[in-house]
Amino acid sequence: MKKSVLFICVHNSARSQMADAFLKARGGEGFAVESAGLSPTSINPLVVEAMAEKGIDLSGATTQSAFELFRQGRLFEYVITVCDDSNEKQCPVFPGLVHREHWPFEDPAALTGTHEEKMAGVRRIRDQIEEAVAAFAGRFGSA
């Protein structure tokens, strides 16, 4: 039976999208994965660029509302929040779950500097998320 996983952050524009994509790509058939946000916006173009470097195409990805999933009565075995504790006052909470985990990652939208400086930051965050997802999948025998 597939483990249902929801990655959630504030805007569903970067961190939760990357985690979702990595678990879908690397987690095998053992997971049903989605991502959502409290105030969904659009996918961060720097994230699309950084994920393409890993062979993952997010150019057509869309965002969705955690509140809408809740209204639909959707339940997830694992809900993993990926907000940065130090900079965000409210990391989303999704009720009705079995296992909740929090993985604090910096928000790529908060990065400043030139395009290349921001890309360096997005790559760092991307790689941290990839490592966390690999460790999570490894707990269930997926890589």
UniProtKB/TrEMBL annotation:
Keywords: Arsenical resistance
Pfam families for this protein: LMWPc
SMART domains in alphabetical order: LMWPc
One GO BP: response to arsenic-containing substance
Top-level taxonomic group: Bacteria
Keyword Disulfide bond tagged: no
Keyword Hydrolase: no
Phosphotyrosine protein phosphatase I domain span: 3-139
Signal peptide, first to last residue: none
PANTHER family: ARSENATE REDUCTASE
Annotated protein name in UniProt: Arsenate reductase ArsC
Organism from which the protein derives: Desulfolutivibrio sulfodismutans
